[in-house]
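Morning run. Coffee first, then this:
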Amino acid sequence: MKKLSKGLLAAAAVPAALTGIIALFNKAIYVKANKNSDSSYNNETYCWKYGNVNYEKTGSGQPLILIHSLYAGSSLAEWKKTAKSLSKFYTVYNIDLPGYGHSEKPKMTYAAFTYAAFLNDFATDVIKKPVFLIAANGSSEAAVMSAKNYETIEKLMVVSPQTFETGIVKKANKLKRFLMELPVFGTAFYNLNTTHLALKKNISDYGFFAKENIDNDFIDECFKAAHSEKGSARYAFAALLTDYMDMDVRNIMSKLEIPCAVCWGEENTRNPIKNMEKLEEIVPNAQYLIFEKTKAYPHIENAAEFANEAHAFFN
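And here it is:
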């Protein structure tokens, strides 16, 4: 009987020890990410119904909202170069979307319609007048939906909208999302995918055409943003990987009644330029802009030209 008890205790000790090791790994990631964080972070805050949202406001003129991509570690840092140029002509609102950057990251369903509603609420509550808007990659779907469902966007520019088929959330995806949201193991899965090395590799492989254009400070910002609220960013990450943010932009864009421009990095491998050609067939009235020698981030790799083209479209 004593031998059986010892065996049971030993068996119970293994998962407990494993959980402890994973918890230490998670803590180490948070410590590293916040080691050199700027404690004097003094951006503005919008108190949205689902948590505080961080944003930077610069410049003067017609309001222009900038929305970052939806990759792990994405934040308003993605738009800093372009925002600086555009702030000479517009009042630029560079936003950390809910669940990203230095905005709050509550446990909720992050979907395209969630962000579409947020964009309308931000324009209505903070800016209080119609806006211009530029959205990058995965956030383009939410921007398109917001432009279709509300009347707060006057002109819209999107950078390589990603989804070209209706995302169907299957039961398996719901289970996967549940597992990814678990406190210890789900957090560890998220942290493994958002180490400094993992983020740098992902951004290097898919974001930039010319590796010399990769700014180490930008990678550092992505790493900090990915872990600004410990493991809470895993909720948006789980929704992203389980198709909750997906929607088909083609049909909605074809029904937009506002001026629209579509930008694409010619060398984009994750979302190849052939998808722009498909979109052009369905939405021929939009303006199409191709940026040579860029991938997913033409607004970073060629910020000066991107800002010029954006100003020409909005002006």
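The CA atoms of residues 27 and 102 lie 18 Å apart. Good start to the day.
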